[in-house]
Amino acid sequence: MRPLKWVAAVWPALVLGAAISQQAADLESLLASAQQAQAREDFDTAAGLYRKAVNVQPGVAELRANLGLMDYQTGNHEEAIASFQQAIRLNPRLFVPQLFLGLEDVRLRRFQEAIVCLKRAALIKPGELQTLTALGKAYAALGQTREAIASYSQAAHSDSGNAESWFHLGVAYLEQVEADARSILGRHKDSGYFHSIVADSYLGQRDFDRAEEAYKTAIGFQPLPAGVPASYGFLLLDRHDLQGAERELNTELSLHPGSLLARLGIARLRLEQGATAEAGKQI
User: Fold this and answer.
1) How far is residue 263's CA from residue 249's CA, in Å, rounded to a whole number?
2) Burial of 81 (0-12, 13-18, 19+ CB in 10 A)
3) At 161, is the secondary structure helix, strand, or coil?
4) pLDDT surpassing 60 at residue 141
5) d(CA 78, CA 72)
6) Taking 70 as the threshold, does the pLDDT of residue 9 lie above it?
7) 128: exposed, middle or buried (C-beta count within 10 Å: 0-12, 13-18, 19+)?
8) What per-residue string of b and e applies to 250-259 under the rule 16 or more CB within 10 Å gives b?
């Protein structure tokens, strides 16, 4: 059984003012006993006491939230959900029922409903780790990996020592890479962008022949992806084809005059040609 982290505060003045003196005394005694039972993690007893307190003061959202928490801890999920829903109807700005109703929805794989509650919880208490992690799980389950990455990233940075958040963030990034790869292969295979990525991949593997062929193919597409001629120019520099490298680097500069990659390539080209002073100017 996981330890109870959240408890919705109940202020005696809130619940006592509208009750007759005997009810007030009974309620105060019930709350004191419930809190003692919580402290010793006797959640069944605490749930029974909060249930009696709700019967005395049914209009207090915090009482229903705490009853929901006790039922959540003991595995009485249907009762917990009902209590959280009632608490939200009474006070939509209460954090605890929004969070735990969202957690229940995640457990039941009702991910769209979970996202609604968890986003409300995140607005009430920004940066709370448990909320952001659950929100990331709901987004990930729906295949909304970019949203999942955003939630896991916030969670990881809100508590940089939490290994679970970093793990989920890493998995979400991998899933996004796979989704992007499927999209490129399925929808953009015949494009300069696809062939430029293939060329970059071959270049990283130092398979220069295949990289050169892929760059040549990418350059044949219009519009020409930015950076492709410059990258091809660097490959030609590595292969000591200085004339071809200069051609590609100048092509990049004619299309994108502000390209720093192309200017750096020109500097390297001048060094290869022995024009050290001109290289220095380019740098």
Assistant:
1) 8
2) buried
3) coil
4) yes
5) 9
6) no
7) buried
8) bbbbebbeeb
Residue whose token pair is 């959900």: 81
Instruction: Give burial (CB, 10 Å; 0-12/13-18/19+) of 129.
Output: middle
Amino acid at position 89, single letter = R
pLDDT for res 263: 92
Angle at 249 between CA 258 and CA 214, to 5 degrees: 115
Cα 34–58–51 angle (5° rounding)?
A: 35
The helix-helix angle for 111-124 and 95-107 (nearest 10°) equals 160
Q: Give residue-wise pLDDT tens across range 71-114.
A: 999 999 999 999 999 999 999 999 999 999 999 999 999 999 99
Are 46 and 30 in contact by the 8 Å Cβ rule? The answer is no
Say whether pLDDT at 34 is over 90. Answer: no
Report residue 61 as tokens: 């959202």
Find out whether the peptide bond into 223 is cis, omega within 30 degrees of 0: yes
pLDDT digits (tens, 9 = 90+) for 197-216: 788 888 888 888 898 888 88
Structural tokens at position 182: 């499927």
Distance CA 199, CA 210 (A): 7
Length of the chain: 283
pLDDT at 149: 94
Q: d(Cα 129, Cα 136) in Å, to the nearest integer?
A: 11
C-alpha to C-alpha distance for 31 and 227, rounded to whole angstroms: 68
Q: Single out the residue of 179, 123, 121 nearest to residue 149, CA to CA.
A: 179
- Taking Cα atoms as reference points, which of 229, 235, 234 lies closest to residue 253? 229
What secondary structure letter does DSSP report for 168?
H
